[in-house]
Each structure stands twice: as C-alpha cells, then as structure tokens.
Write a structure and sequence with these properties.
globular
Length: about 325
C-alpha cells in the first residue's frame, strides 16, 4: 500500500526538560515516513538550541524559529511549511506510543476516511493516572461528521488535534485562531463539515503529561483564565455552523451555549462581576433573555436549569453562596 508522508508539528516554548522525550517518541514511530517540524516559539531557556541539536540526530526533523506568538501561531507557521499529505500535532510535554501513526494511517486507508483519532490517557507530574477525558471506544468506529459534532456539543467527543491524523488539504487558510484558547475546538468544528467522517480507534496511544503551569494548565486557581470567554465565543460560532450544516442539532447547540456561559459564571472571580465588565454583563443578559427557551430545552439537566435561573436572577449572590458552600465542604 502507499506510504503517504505525514507531517508532525510540535510547537515548542521553554520546555527543554521534557522535549527530548516528546521528540524521541516521534522519531521512534514504527511509521517511518515522517516530516517532523519543531517550531521554537521564542524560547528563552535554551530550548531553541536544543531543537537544533535534536534536528542533528534525525534528518526528518526541521526547526523553525519565530518570535513568541503562542501555540496557535507556531502551529500555523508549521502548517504553511508542511509537505505531508497528512498532518498530526504533538504538544511538547506529551509523548506517543511507538505505533500511533501506523495505527492512524492504517485505519485511514482501511476505512477510506480523511481523518482518524486514537484514544488518550493522562498522568500527573508524579506519574499518577488521571480519569479519562473521553471514554475510548471498545472497537474501531467510523463517526459521521453530524454525530461527531453532536458528541462535541455534549462534551463526550475529543476535540484535540493531538490525537488525530488529518488530510492536510482539509485545513483552511486561516487555521488555528491566534491569541485564543480552546483553539482546537474552534478549528475542528469549522472543519467537520468538510471531513465527512472521523475514524475513532480504541488504543490509548497519545499520552498527556499534566504539567502544572503549562500553557493550558495553570496552577493558580484564583486567576481567571481567558479560556472561559473564548469558549463562550466558540459556542456562538458553532451555533451558526449548526444552523447552516446541522439544523437538527439546534437544541443541542443551544444547550452547549448555555453550558459554556454557566461555566464562565461559575469560575469568574466575584471581584470581576462588575457593571463595567461588558463580557460578564452580556452573558448575564443572554441568560435572562433566553430563560424561557432554556427551561423547555430537553437536553439541559435540572441542575443546569436551576443554575441558569439563579444566575439570571442574582449572579453575584449565587457565587457568594457557592463559594461559602465550597469552603464549608
């Protein structure tokens, strides 16, 4: 069978302690026809020089250096330089099982799809296993794009590009949103209508290392991550995509938007719940305006509807009571 070239993209920033494990897990893949692009995103700790040294170990590795612009910017730069027919992504603190890309490419060719994913597992800094974010299937399954979109909206699907292998021609000219979090979801829901279907494999071949303080894993719980606001923006975007391509999922998309707004209100510091915070005010106004629709939504749970009602009436009071209850617990 054909052995298409796979481009593996690794955005890199101040990660010299973990980068060798990541890169060596890629060069050790049983699928050998790889182009590996490391993008040094303006590292200041010697990681950029380490990338160059790693490139000297394997001729398949290329290194791109850029001023610090964030993970999405680094991924987009690599996509513009990619030669592979298929593209995969790896976060620089994670690592792969040796057979991951062989399994993905074999599945793509056997099931005649344009994208495939493996399951993933997570461990913390001490090596302790963490609960599965997404439950792996028991056997290979082809998920049509409509069903995959539904699973994403119900928080049961895997939106990560790191677990996936995707035909490069499917990527738009403006792939990952720069200076935004929840960027994988943002891109995936835009691409799904063109993908047609995604093959999901049961093997947990992608290994997430939960490193406190990394780009998306912050140690300070008092800091309000912009990811919550970005998730609300993505919810509005996906609702428009659903209206256009999957109108039968309208109720599910609406539920997703409510859920993301409740998450925002449950995490924003009380000190930021002020009249001059326009994002906060818009979210509360949205809940009030759509209260009736939410109460008749068949997918929102009773708990969701209770929180919706209380946040629509007295958001700051609810947060104070919620904080006191957590302290008491």
């Amino acid at each position: 069978m054909e052995t298409p070239l796979i481009t593996v993209i690794v955005p890199v920033y101040n990660i010299k302690d973990y980068l060798p494990r990541c890169v060596h897990s890629i060069t050790a893949q049983t699928y050998r026809r790889l182009e590996i692009i490391l993008v040094d995103d303006g590292s200041t700790d010697g990681t950029g020089q380490l990338c160059d040294r790693l490139a000297g170990e394997d001729e398949r590795i290329r290194v791109l250096h850029q001023a610090n612009g964030g993970s999405s910017s680094a991924r987009n730069l690599a996509l513009a330089h990619a030669s592979g027919e298929y593209v995969g992504f790896v976060d620089s603190d994670d690592y792969l099982s040796p057979e991951m890309y062989e399994l993905l490419m074999g599945g793509i060719q056997e099931f005649h799809v344009s994208a495939a994913q493996v399951a993933r597992d997570e461990t913390d800094e001490k090596g302790n296993p963490l609960p599965n974010i997404c439950v792996p299937p028991k056997e290979p399954v082809v998920i049509e794009d409509r069903q995959f979109m539904r699973e994403l909206l119900l928080h049961t699907g895997d939106c990560s590009f790191c677990t996936k292998l995707v035909r490069r021609s499917l990527f738009p000219k403006d792939p990952f949103p720069v200076d935004k979090l929840n960027e994988d979801f943002h891109l995936l829901v835009r691409m799904l209508p063109r993908m047609g279907a995604v093959l999901s494999l049961p093997t947990q071949a992608y290994h997430v290392f939960y490193r406190i303080g990394s780009n998306s894993r912050k140690a300070d719980r008092e800091t309000f991550s912009p990811v919550y606001g970005d998730c609300v923006e993505n919810a509005d975007m996906v609702e428009e995509i659903v209206k256009r391509d999957y109108p039968e999922l309208g109720e599910t998309a609406f539920r997703f938007g409510i859920f993301q707004r409740l998450e925002y209100l449950l995490h924003i510091p009380i000190s930021q719940m002020t009249k001059d915070n326009t994002v906060y005010r818009k979210i509360v106004a949205y809940l009030r305006r759509n209260w009736g629709r939410a109460m008749t939504n068949r997918i929102l749970t009773g708990k969701n509807k209770l929180y919706h009602t209380l946040f629509a009436i007295a958001p700051r009071t609810l947060r104070k009571l919620h904080a006191a209850w957590r302290l008491r617990g």
